Amino acid sequence: MASYLESEPPSPGESSGDESQGVEATRICEKMKLNQRLAAKELVNTEAKYVHNLQLCASDIRSHLHELPQGDLDVIFSNIDDIIKVNSRFLKDLEKAGSEEEQISLLGNLFLEFQEEMENTYKVYCACYNQALALVETYRKVPKLQKVIHDVITALVPQACASGLSFLLVMPVQRVTRYPLLLQKILENTPPDDEAYEALQRATRAMQEVNSNINEYKRQKEIATKYNKLEHLTVRERLARINTHSISKKTLRLSQLFKQEAGIVTRTFLRIKPYECDLEMEGGAVQQYCCFTRDLHLLVFLEFKQRLERLVYHPLHHLSKALLGPQNLIKKRLDKLLDFERTEEKLAEMGSMTYEEEAIRHTYQALNSLLVSELPQFNQVAIQWLGQILNTLMALQRDLAQQVLQRAERELGQLPHSHVSDFDFRKLIEDTLDKTSAQLQSFCQNFQKVLPVPVRQPLQPAAERQVQALMSKYSPSKLYQVTSNISGSGNLALTLQKGQIVAVLQDRDIKGNTSRWLVDTGGYRGYVPAGKLEPYQVVPHDKPSMQSGSGDGFKFLPVETPRSSTHVAMPVFQVVAAYPFVARSNYEVSLQAGQSVTVLERQDKKGNPEWSLVEVNGQRGYVPSNFLVCVPSPTPWGWSLPTGDSSLSHM
Amino acid sequence: MSWIPFKIGQPKKQIVPKTVERDFEREYGKLQQLEDQTKKLQKDLKKSTDADLAMSKSAVKISSDLLSNPLCEQDQEFLNLVTALDTAMKRMDAFNQEKVNQIQKTVIEPLKKFGSVFPSLNMAVKRREQALQDYKRLQSKVEKYEEKEKTGPVLAKLHQVREELRPVKDDFEAKNRQLLEEMPRFYNSRLDYFQPSFESLIRAQVVYYTEMHKIFRDLTQQLDQPGHTDEQREQENETKLSELRALSIVADD
Question: How far are the Cα atoms of A264, A289, A471, B205 from residue A268, in angstroms, in the given order?
């Protein structure tokens, strides 16, 4: 043990003082040595006790508290296990020292060795300590659980039962703050020229550093939690949508788009089930298509959607949520900066600050340093993650394509034209479609074609005369037939029977109403509703036709009837046979009712207009002119022009 | 049946034989069903192609947004990734458009044309129905006169009504016959008509997905580590998430 007094040769004038000083020095030296040893011993002993208590707390008490949920236990005891590990090792190393002298020199170095580890474990514990305390408080309020806790503690650690769990939980916090004090005490009692002095000094400083770091860490953590809770957003902050984080913008929008895309896939794609309406076509390409789409819907697309959700959408969602915290803190920092600058100004002016202002400064600085240290790391991880997600997206698309392709090609292989190249196939399809659409056209026309209107009723003789009379006065185009009985009412309204022929004089009445027409019945004139009139085609015959039941007789009427000049060739009409006619000689040709004929001559060789030379079905012959009817074309009640298709139906 | 005072209870005398009616009903029923299915298929296909287009557009939007983000300027690797993705999406969009066009041309158009025949068919059926009504009406009139006493005026009237009846009856029978002939033909024509459409549908998908597969396979080989299973990817995501959460600036949720 070296004496701390300088071993200078005593100056001649102080020899007596020297001796007393020497004795004094030695005595002080002895005392210091004792103190040092005591302090060291205290440290070691307390350490042992501390570790023992910790273990008690951790293993025994905790295991007995199985009534509490595991999550809460984790919060309360946080990383006490790590602390126990570190400190047990520390203790073991401490006790390794043989003599007390060795111990002291060991002490300093040991602390330096363990400094970092201790800092890391204790800072976590201390940061969580407040939370743990809060939790214990809540349990205190629940009498049943409180009793359980109390009983357990009383059984295991009788001296602590008064204060409960909090007494035990505070131990690590107390311990770590005591280290600097204990070391300080040893240091005070160690002469500077002791070989262990330097180590001890450094150790003391190190432990003080540890403590301040722990404090800093704790503060940062608290700030982070305090400001991360969104409830603390003020109105101003909500309005200030300063978005300084570019990743955030990107991911938020991305996740929205993915939601939409996935939504579209679900909503529309899966709801459309084209394979259900198979047009009742069995076999052929439809079969393949049905299998194909059914597969797609039930398997492939669902799988794709699930994978998309799991591997792309959810991570994006998490990422965008994770971005909120830093964004908040950044905003907060800006605010705090303003406060900080204000205090700076005040400091410049006044040179001192109140306690609150100091706190403001510290808050800002803590926040700032936290962000500065962690933001770069955050950004990097976020970008990497985003890149990963995009890669996943591409892989998913590839897999989807592969699966669909597999199935589609399988079905395609079963189709007839699978070997045809794409270009040829398209040509082929176009041709086929052209053909089939022409076919459809013909179908359409078939259905549209209306069979000839039921043949005009042959007129009564009186009516015939009436018609003739009308025709002599008016042009045939003005002749109309009444389609249903008209009972007139009001001024000048006529009462007419169905089938009567009238001539239209005007297609409106005096007031301009076009639904009432002025007609001439040959005898009377008056107004009738226009809806009940139908244009009447004058049958090109001039004698009343047969009245007998059968319609296929004909009458030879050799008497020529004076032709009225109004009996002129009709404007563009088609001639149709009104009644069936059986040919009885070579000169005649048979007719079927409704058959279309071509009139070659409207009179026979002798000029008899009662017979017409017609061509029908490729045959020529004479038929009674009475049997022929002109119908205008094209109107709803005529033939449609015969198409090239042979589906013209015959009666 | 003249001794029954109440006419309502009388069964209608069947003018048109039951078998004919039944046949007609059956054929027409089939065609009505066909019409419904055609319409539904057309609507569904239209919705499907619209959804196709919308999805493709949103994919392009995603990649364009990514590209326009300032992050690309900061990180070269990221920029490469996003540019490649963007190119891929745009190409896919072009192919998709082509696919939709092809489907439009070879499936939806023919469907529409097929459906356009139905209105004419329905009109023709209506006309037949009208003719049937006229026929029935006149027939009952004839029967009414036949039951009366054969007096002179009655006979004349009877004769006249019979005259009226004849063409109407012929008309109805003509219509009936025509429809009975044409309807099955039309119905059966659908088989040949639609085969090419469905074939084309599958082929269009094949073409599209071949391209898609090629593009994305190249992309992933170039940029991603292919061969990662889903579990591995999930694991990676978890790792990143926990890395982020370990930082104190990230809120715990």
Answer: 6, 19, 69, 18
Q: With pLDDT > 90 as the criterion, what percentage of chain A qualifies?
A: 0
CB A223 within 8 A of CB A367: yes
For residue B227 the two structure tokens come to 């061969």
Q: Are A448 and B217 within 8 A, CB to CB?
A: no
How does DSSP classify residue A163? T
pLDDT at A348: 82
Q: What is the pLDDT of residues A393-440, one digit of tens each?
A: 888 888 888 888 887 777 777 777 666 677 777 787 788 888 878 887
* A651 and A593 Cβ atoms separated by less than 8 Å: yes
Give the residue from A389, A380, A378, A255 showing the smallest Cα distance to B75: A380
pLDDT tens readout for residues B59-101: 888 888 888 777 667 778 888 888 888 888 899 999 999 999 9
CATH architecture for residues A22-229: Up-down Bundle (1.20)
The predicted pLDDT at position A78 comes to 76
Query: What is the tens place of the pLDDT at every residue in A567-611?
Result: 333 445 567 887 888 888 888 888 887 777 888 888 777 777 788
Q: Nearest C-alpha of chain A: how many angstroms from B6?
A: 29
The DSSP annotation for A520-565 comes to E-SS-EEEEEGGGEEE-PPPS-SS----SS-SS------S--PPPT
Q: What is the pLDDT of residue A641?
A: 34
Question: What is the distance of C-alpha B81 from the center of its chain?
Answer: 42
Is A425 close to B182, i.e. CB distance below 8 A? no
Are A509 and A518 contacting, i.e. CB atoms less than 8 angstroms apart?
yes
Nearest-Cα distance to chain A for B4, in Å, is: 31
Q: What is the reported pLDDT for B123?
A: 86
Second CATH level (architecture) for the domain A461-535: Roll (2.30)
In sequence order, what are the residues at sequence separation of 6 or more whose Cβ sits closer than 8 angstroms to the Cβ of residue A216? A366
How do residues A146-179 score in pLDDT, each as one tens digit?
777 777 777 776 665 556 677 778 888 888 888 8
> Cβ–Cβ of B196/A220 closer than 8 Å?
no
Window 89-148 of B: residues touching A by CB (8 A cutoff) are 102, 106, 109-110, 113-114, 116-117, 120-121, 123-124, 127
Q: What is the torsion angle, in degrees rounded to the nearest 10, for the CA atoms of residue A180, residue A182, residue A183 and residue A187?
A: 130
The pLDDT of A338-362, averaged and rounded, is 80
| A224 contact residues in B (CB cutoff 8 A) | 248-249, 251
Q: Of A190-199, A224-233, B46-55, B119-128, which gets the smallest average pLDDT?
A: A224-233
Q: Which residues of B touch A392 (CB under 8 A)?
A: 224, 233
C-beta atoms of B47 and A272 within 8 A? yes
The CATH number, out of the four listed (3.90.550.10, 3.40.50.150, 2.30.30.40, 2.60.40.10), of the domain defined by the range A573-632: 2.30.30.40
Per-residue b or e along B106-138, where b marks 16 or more CB atoms closer than 10 Å to that residue's CB: bbbebbebbbebbebbeebbebbeebbebbbeb
| pLDDT given for residue A141 in this prediction | 78
User: At A624, is the secondary structure helix, strand, or coil?
Assistant: strand
Q: What is the pLDDT of residue A648?
A: 36
Contact flag A254-B193 (C-beta cutoff 8 Å): no
Interval A322-331 mean pLDDT: 81
Q: How far is CA B219 from CA A128, A256, B75, in A?
A: 47, 24, 19
Is the CA virtual torsion A507, A509, A510, A511 positive or negative? negative
Would the CB atoms of A321 and B253 count as touching at under 8 Å? yes
Q: What span, in angstroms and rounded, lies between the C-alpha atoms of A309 and A302?
A: 11
User: Which residues of chain A are within 8 Å of residue B88 when distances are taken between CB atoms?
Assistant: 394
Domain at B25-221: CATH architecture = Up-down Bundle (1.20)
Chain A with chain B: Cβ pairs closer than 8 A:
294
A229 touches chain B (CB under 8 A): yes
Contact (CB<8Å) A649/B51: no
